Amino acid sequence: MTNNKHVLTWLDEMVALVKPDKVVWIDGSEEQLKALRDEALSTGEMEALNQEELPGCLLHRTKKNDVARVEGRTYICTKNRDDAAPINNWMETSEMKAKLTPMYDGVMKGRTMYVIPYCMGPIGSPFSKVGVELTDSIYVVLNMDIMTRMGQKALDQLGDSNDFVRGLHSKADVDEENRYIVQFPEENTIWSINSAYGGNVLLGKKCFALRIASYQGFKEGWMAEHMLILGIEAPNGETSYITAAFPSACGKTNLAMLIPPEVYAQQGYKVWTVGDDIAWMHIGEDGRLYAINPEAGFFGVAPGTNAKSNYNALASTKKNTIFTNVAHNLDNNTVWWEGLDKNPPVNAVEWTGNKVNGPEYAAQGGKLAHPNSRFTAPAINCPCLSKEFDNPNGVPVTAMVFGGRRAKTAPLVYQSFDWNHGVYVGSAMASETTAAATGAVGVVRRDPMAMRPFCGYNMGDYFSHWLDMGKKLGDKAPKIFNVNWFRTDDEGHFIWPGFGDNMRVLMWILNRCEGKVDAVETAIGYLPKAEDIDVTGLEGEGVTVDTVKDLLTVDSALWLEDCKGVHELYDQIGERVPAELEKQLADLEARLAK
Ligand code: OXD
Ligand code: MN
Q1: CA distance 483 to 509
Q2: Which ligand minimizes its atom distance to the CA of 244?
Q3: Suppose 247 and one of 39, 308, 447, 524 were both cysteines; which one would form an S-S bond, judging by CB atoms 3.0 to 4.6 Å apart?
């Protein structure tokens, strides 16, 4: 399929190492994919679902020990410790290779190796990048088909170039004690072993499009961020684009696909999704920042997704989708998960493969679907997919939004004073743990730019790179905001309705960018005047201008306390934290103490 000598030489080396019985190049043809699906069905690796209700959809279950990304076993390996540590797990490159090479030696004996060429970003885009993943998993091939542009077209995009990411994956024995997800950013290489779960093995996603790409962006002058991309089309047909970074469990996919509330829908506003997880951003010829979504599908969390919380995500899963670790409804051969509706199937197979009576099982506290069960859905299924999705130049970014889950500190929304202050705001991002996760509730985890698990180099250098991008962008830089949908009242109930109503906040953000609305200057940044957040239609939910006022209060004592957490983070990152951010923190403390 290719004469690219860099690809062929590397492939020979890897084949010599893992010793597969057979090597199969994935060309991306429907004929080849059908044969692989049939093989996976015949071995039981996949189950076919109801082809009338869910055409082309498949169900897969992972091993019980292999259901999520494993941050503790994820490494960034560089020659020098300081180039990747201390936020990341680090090991010296050759030491890690020496450790893993014996594990890979002969690991594919008796198995087929699939060679998957794939492109992250639209084919033909100057901003897209190519990877080749070697894997012994058909599940990986079928998922990569949905999540990337896969096959011959990716090799055509690569041509003779050596600029491709070399990914080696083996599920091996799915042994959690020997599970490693390793990035070698200085060598454009990823090695993943002993997992068969999405985030650890679909190497185009977190491993390449964030960890390796963030390092490439640092070296090449662009940005790879853990951000959704959405467009808001005004009644006059003009669309403004917003990118937004949130840690896990903060509703990123929901925000990316939101349905405008009546007050905006009536006027003709529309929301379009460009991406739900990752944005690659470059400075365009006009000096503005442009974003592409490097992915071609959504690898979304199923539980909690329903027609009300995210109609568009649910609609995206209705055909050619792979479901992983959800419950199987045997009565109609479809799928179910907690939060889909209130009716667990009576005749069900829960996610580990046991037959259960759904309502009884749920009443005893059992989970029919794993809380991190997923759908892998083609983006083209999404009813609100932007027509710019495949635009090789991407979309111009008007505003960038950071956010987290904060019960008390952060107000509903505020704007940073300028780019550098915005970078500070992103660096100080944090989210509180929820009751849904193990461990103490309400513990603050600092997650700069939502990149803590995904930054492929030293976090201090990453902050410097953000500051440098601001210098290059000058007055064309997007404006930076922070939002918090998760403030609670004294009883612990969320005050803001969230979901589609978050558009009300996005509209204030766009109005600020267009200079259409004033703001109040405070110690933390520019806050809205409460009456400038439109709450028309929320009366029934008890949300009024006074509620918004309440959501916009800033408690200086709490904020000063929170600054201590930022000091701790900066101390942990160490001397590469830019002096500019230390200054931003000191200035904030001084303003708060006044
Ligand atoms: C994801 C994540 O799966 O951020 O997108 O964990
Ligand atoms: Mn993510």
Answers
A1: 10
A2: 2
A3: 447
Q: Is 453 helix (H, G, I), strand (E, B) or coil?
A: coil
Predicted local distance difference test score (pLDDT) of residue 433: 75
What tokens were used for 391?
């635009």
- The count of residues in the chain is 594
pLDDT at 440: 67
Q: What are the φ/ψ torsions at residue 182 (nearest 5 degrees)?
A: -125, 130
Distance from residue 565's CA to the centre of ligand 1 (Å): 24
**CB crowding 106-136: b at 16 or more within 10 Å, else e:** ebbeebbbbbbbbbbbbeebebbbbbbbbbb
Q: Is 207 a catalytic residue?
A: no
Contacts of 97 (CB under 8 A, 6+ apart): none
pLDDT at 441 (0 to 100): 67
* Tokens, residue 137: 């998993």
| Closest residue by CA, ligand 1 atom 1 | 248
Strand partners, 377: 298
CA distance 80 to 349: 49
248 lines ligand 1 (CB under 6 A): yes
Residue nearest to atom 6 of ligand 1 (CA): 248
Which of 197, 206, 276, 454 to mutate for ligand 1's pocket (most ligand atoms within 8 Å of CB)? 206
**Measured distance CA(538)–CA(553) in Å, rounded:** 20
Residue 249's pLDDT is 79
Residue nearest to atom 3 of ligand 1 (CA): 199
Active-site entry in 57, 77, 250, 384 = 250
Ligand 1 atom at minimal distance to the Cα of residue 198:
3
| pLDDT recorded at residue 248 | 83
Rounded mean pLDDT for each run of 10 residues along the chain, 594 residues in total: 97 98 98 98 98 98 94 96 95 98 98 98 98 98 98 98 98 97 98 95 98 98 98 98 93 96 98 98 98 98 95 98 98 98 98 98 97 96 98 98 94 98 98 65 89 97 98 98 95 94 98 98 98 96 96 97 98 97 98 96
Q: Which segments of 171-222 are extended strands (E)? A: 180-184, 189-193
Please name the helix (run of DSSP H) or strand (run of DSSP E) that holds residue 171, with its range, or none: none
| Minimal-distance CA residue to ligand 1 atom 5 | 277
Q: How many CB atoms lie within 10 A of CB 449?
A: 26
Q: Is the shortest distance between the CB of 247 and ligand 1 below 6 Å?
A: no
Q: Is the CB of 277 under 6 A from ligand 1?
A: yes
Q: Kind of pairing, strands 526-527 and 520-521?
A: antiparallel
Query: Which residue, 324, 339, 318, is CA-closest to 143?
Result: 324
pTM as predicted: 0.97
Identify which of 248, 252, 299, 452 to mutate to test ligand 1's pocket (most ligand atoms within 8 A of the CB).
248
Distance 500 CA to ligand 2 centre (A): 20
What would the 3-class secondary structure string for 454-513 be? Answer: CCCCCHHHHHHHHHHHHHHHHHHCCEEEEECCCCECCCCCECCCCHHHHHHHHHHHHHHH
